[in-house]
Amino acid sequence: xxxxxxxxxxxxxxxxxxxxxxxxxxxxxxxxxxxxxxxxxxxxxxxxxxxxxxxxxxxxxxxxxxxxxxxxxxxxxxxxxxxxxxxxxxxxxxxxxxxxxxxxxxxxxxxxxxxxxxxxxxxxxxxxxxxxxxxxxxxxxxxxxxxxxxxxxxxxxxxxxxxxxxxxxxxxxxxxxxxxxxxxxxxxxxxxxxxxxxxxxxxxxxxxxxxxxxxxxxxxxxxxxxxxxxxxxxxxxxxxxxxxxxxxxxxxxxxxxxxxxxxxxxxxxxxxxxxxxxxxxxxxxxxxxxxxxxxxxxxxxxxxxxxxxxxxxxxxxxxxxxxxxxxxxxxxxxxx
Length: 336
Fold this sequence. Notes:
Layout: H1 3-20, H2 25-81, H3 87-103, H4 122-128, E1 138-142, E2 147-153, H5 157-160, E3 164-166, E4 179-184, E5 206-211, E6 214-226, E7 241-249, E8 256-265, H6 269-276, H7 286-335
Parallel strand pairs: 2-3, 4-7
Antiparallel strand pairs: 1-2, 1-5, 3-4, 5-6, 6-8, 7-8
Helix pairs in contact: 2-7
Transmembrane segments: 41-62, 287-309
Keywords: Hydrolase, Membrane, Transmembrane, Transmembrane helix
Region (Disordered): 1-32, 317-336
């Protein structure tokens, strides 16, 4: 036998000896500890991911709830603050607004969501100076759609995120024969309800506008869906006092505009409180309840599954520990 073959045989024998060397107690403990760390990681990770998922699902619910509350608080505060202005201030502001509507030049009415509706002109500055004793211009209430929101000047993006925007170029919402005011609100915002339920309104329903100490009641006479550039129905009509509520539709697609138009009807002062009390804005929406119920169901199912998994894990660990002890005892017996 050659020297090379002898060395090769020795090397093979050495490899076989290494492969057949039994696992030491220290190596066995290290292997068990590594397996336990991996199991702990896989035990902790699912609950962490579950909590993060729940927070993501709850964000629109919490944000919408808080924003709805804030918008209603602002609307109620507007009504209360009018008593602090004094009758002379209220009378003067309304007189200025009425005069503004009489003097306003006819201008093309454009889609509220066009950027061109944010002009930097003297006319727009004059518009912003009307009904400006409060950041809120007025409030609108629609009982059949659970709407009670503040109205602000203009239809800028930031404005429509906090309430209803009055469309520049249309009459101020103070009423008057031959006027037509247009109020714009979002649908489908992830953080507020706004005009989401405007599609519930039907012909014959009523809505209310409160501006300073003037209360206006409108009865819905026309509901239509139009393209963004179809604004002819927003023009003034001689001899009529009109108000239109407008939002995007279909929900989440926003290719068209939903127009709800009402004509003013009489309402004496004794009716004001009773009529306004009919408005019960829904701070909590049905979809919010559905999300919370769904989360609770997921938590219950997860708890049950986690209980089964924990029970099986403990059983498996006990079996591994017993096997390790048996292996150690066997090794000690062989050494003896």
